[in-house]
C-alpha cells in the first residue's frame, strides 16, 4: 500500500462547477500538507499549504485536512478553464526535509 | 520570488552516453532535490542534498549520481544513459525545516529522451 493515495482521474467538469480533489494517507506522523498545481510541460508550483487539521482558504481554493480520517481535500469554487492542470498532494512530518507526493489528479475544466 | 532553473528543457541522448543535468537556485536554499516524473508513477525522488557536498539517496538512485560543489547548484549525472531513463526530470529546492519550511520550489523540468 502506498503511503499517499490519490485518484489519478482524469476528471472533467464544466466551467463554474465546484471541484473536489482528495488524498488519503496511512502515516499518522504527517503534519504538513500541501497542494501543488502542475500545468502541462511545466514544473509543479505550490498552491496551498496547511499545518495539522482544519481548513485554509485562499480565494477560490480551500484546503481541508481531517487527520482523524487521514484524508485531505482541495476544493475549487467557480472553476475556470485556467484551472485545468494536474494537482498533486504532498505531505511531510516534523523535521523531515523530504515530501511524500500523491501521483496527481488530472483536471480539465470544460468551457 | 524563488527561481529554480534547469539547464535544458528538452534533451535527446543516445544509449550509453554520460548525461549531465544542471539545476541552479537563487534563494540560498539549504536543500536541493532531483525527481523523475513518469505517467502513473508520480514524482519519485532520485537524490537529495542538504548541504554542499552532502547527499542522500532517494527512492530510485540506481543508475544516477549527483554533485553539489556550490550551494546554489545541484547536478544530476546519468553515468551510462539507458532507454528506461527516458523521463521528465525535475529539480527542486527548499529552505529546510531549520528555517521552518517544508515547501519545495520546482524548476521547469527537463524532458530527457534516450534513444
What are the salient characteristics of this protein?
heterodimer, A: 0% helix, globular, B: 115 residues, mainly beta, seven-stranded mixed beta sheet
Task: Give a summary of the structure in a few sentences.
The complex is a heterodimer of chains A (111) and B (115). Helices cover 0% and strands 55% of the residues of chain A.
Explain the overall architecture.
- The complex is a heterodimer of chains A (111) and B (115).
- With 111 residues, chain A is mostly beta strands.
- Chain A contains no helices and eleven strands.
- Chain A is globular, with a radius of gyration of 13 Å.
- The model of chain A has no long low-confidence stretch (mean pLDDT 94).
- With 115 residues, chain B is an all-beta fold.
- Chain B is 0% helix and 56% strand.
- Chain B contains no helices and eleven strands.
- The mean pLDDT of chain B is 94.
- Chains A and B meet through strand 4, strand 5 and strand 9 of A and strand 5, strand 9 and strand 10 of B.
Order of helices and strands of chain A: EEEEEEEEEEE
DSSP helical segment count of chain A:
0
Main β-sheet description of chain B: 7 strands, mixed
Number of strands of chain B: 11
Distance between the termini of chain A: 37 Å
For the residues shown, what is the average pLDDT of chain A?
94
Radius of gyration of chain B: 13 Å
Helical content band of chain B: under 10%
Instruction: Work out the helicity level of chain A.
Output: under 10%
H/E series of chain B, N to C? EEEEEEEEEEE
Show the largest interface: A-B, 25 and 25 residues
Characterize the overall form of chain A: globular
How many strand segments of chain A? 11
Q: List unreliable stretches of 5+ residues of chain B.
A: none
**Chain oligomer state:** heterodimer
Tally of alpha and pi helices of chain B: 0
Chain-averaged pLDDT of chain B: 94
Q: Helix/strand/pairing class of chain A, anyone?
A: mainly beta
